[in-house]
Amino acid sequence: MKIVVLGAGESGFGAAYLAKKKGMRVFVSDKGYIKEQYKQLLIDHDIEFEEGQHTEEKILSADWVVKSPGIPKKANIVAQIHQKGIRLSSEIEFASEFTNAKIIAITGSNGKTTTTSLIYHILKNNNMNVGLGGNIGKSFAKQVADENYDYYVLEVSSFQLDDIQNFRPYISLLLNLSQDHLDQYNYNYEEYALAKFRIAENQENDDFFIYNKDDQMSQKILKELDLRANKIPFSIKEKINFGGYVEQEEIVVKGTEDFKMKIKDLALMGSHNVANSLAASIAGKLLNISNESIRQSLMTFQAVEHRLEEVAVINGVKFINDSKATNVNATYYALESMKTPTIWIVGGVDKGNDYSEIEDLVRKKVKAVVCLGIDNSKIIAFFKDKVEQLYDTSSMEEAIEVSKSVAKEEDTVLLSPCCASFDLFKNYEDRGKIFKKTVLKK
C-alpha cells in the first residue's frame, strides 16, 4: 500500500513513521519547509520526502493520504485528492486503525488541552498504562508504532475530526461550543458544531459520550443526531440524575458510585474549570477509578502552560499568560475569572470574532485595552467607546511597556488575545513565551 503524508510536523512524521513500520511505501510532502528535527528523523528512517512543493503526480498516486490538520480543507490539493476518490484521513484516524487500546477523546471550543491533560493525570496517577496525544504532546501515531499502551487520552480538534472515517473512542467528551474557526466552515456555526460532534459518530451502545448540558448549540444538535453511545451530561447550572453537576459548593457525579468533592479543593480555579473538572471526573468514574484517586488527582493537577498561567507579580501587579485564548469564548472565561482591575492585551488574526459577547465583562473588569497586532482596527472600532483607555501597539515589548505604565498595585495584566497569533508570532506558544520573557525583563 502506498501512503502519502501531507505535512511533516509532529503528526506528519509520526504517521509516516508508523506507515513505514507497518511495511507500507511512504512519501511525505510538505509545501512549506520542514523543521530540521523532523527532516533529520525522515532521513534517519529512510522515508522519502519533499519540501517547498506538492508534486501532484506522486500525491495522487497514493492509496491513502494522511493530512496534517494545519492544511486547510479548501486547499487545491485536498480537492484533487477527493476528486480522485483517494481515502483522506487525519493522523488520529490513521493511527487508530493500528491499536486496540481504549481511546478517551476530548474536543470542544475551549478547555480541550486542560481537560485532556487532567484526564491523563487522573489515569497516570492511578498507575494505568496510558499515552497522551492528538493535538497535544507526542504524535499519537508514533506512540502506536513504538509503545504498547492500554489507553490513549487524545485532544482532538474539528480539523482532525473532519478527516475521520472509522475513528471510534471508548469515551468521547464534547466540552462546549463557541464560534471559532468559522473561516474554515463557510462562516456557519452549525457546520462547525457538527464537525465537533463527529467525535461520537462511530461510537456504539457500549461506548460513552460526555457532553455539556448548559451548552445551547450542543443541546440543539443532540436532538438532531441519532447517536448510539450512552449520553452522559454535566452541568454547573442544574442538578442531574445521572451525570455531573454542582451543588452547595461541591462537584457531584451521580452514577453507579457517587463522587463528591469541594470546589475549593480543586487545583483549577474559575467556573469553566469546574465544568472541566466535572467532565474529567465522569470519565474517571466510567473507567472505574476510585473516588480517592480522582480526588487526589484533581487536587494535585498543575495548570497547562499558556492557559491562565500566572507569570509573576511585579510591584504588586499580577501578570497572566492566557495566550491559548484564540477565540472570544476563551477570553470570556479568562475575564470572568479576573478579581482585580484588568489591563487586557488583545489582538492578532481575527477569525470572525463577535466582541459583543464579552462587552459587558470588559465594561465591568477592564480598565485599559492594549491592542497587540498588525491590524487592530476592528478591536479599536468596537471598544473605543466602551473603555476609558485604549492603546494600539504592534510589538510585545510595546504592549508590555504600555501595560506596565498603566497598571497600579493590585491590578492584573492579562494577555488573552481572542485571536490567532500568526501576524506577529509563530503560534500561540511562541506568543506566550515572548510575553513571559518580556514581562520578566528587568
UniProtKB/TrEMBL annotation:
Residues reported in the UniProt entry to bind ATP: 108-114
Reactions performed catalytically: UDP-N-acetyl-alpha-D-muramoyl-L-alanine + D-glutamate + ATP = UDP-N-acetyl-alpha-D-muramoyl-L-alanyl-D-glutamate + ADP + phosphate + H(+)
Primary site of residence: cytoplasm
Protein species of origin: Riemerella columbipharyngis
First-tier enzyme category under EC: ligase
Record domain Mur ligase central: where: 106-283
Name assigned to this protein: UDP-N-acetylmuramoylalanine--D-glutamate ligase
Recorded GO MF terms: ATP binding; UDP-N-acetylmuramoylalanine-D-glutamate ligase activity
Family to which this protein belongs: Belongs to the MurCDEF family.
Keyword Cytoplasm attributed: yes
The keyword Cytoplasm is assigned to this record: yes
Pathway: Cell wall biogenesis; peptidoglycan biosynthesis
Gene Ontology biological process terms in this record: cell division; cell wall organization; peptidoglycan biosynthetic process; regulation of cell shape
Residue ranges occupied by any Mur ligase C-terminal domain in the UniProt entry: 306-418
Localization terms from the record: Cytoplasm
Function of the molecule: Cell wall formation. Catalyzes the addition of glutamate to the nucleotide precursor UDP-N-acetylmuramoyl-L-alanine (UMA).
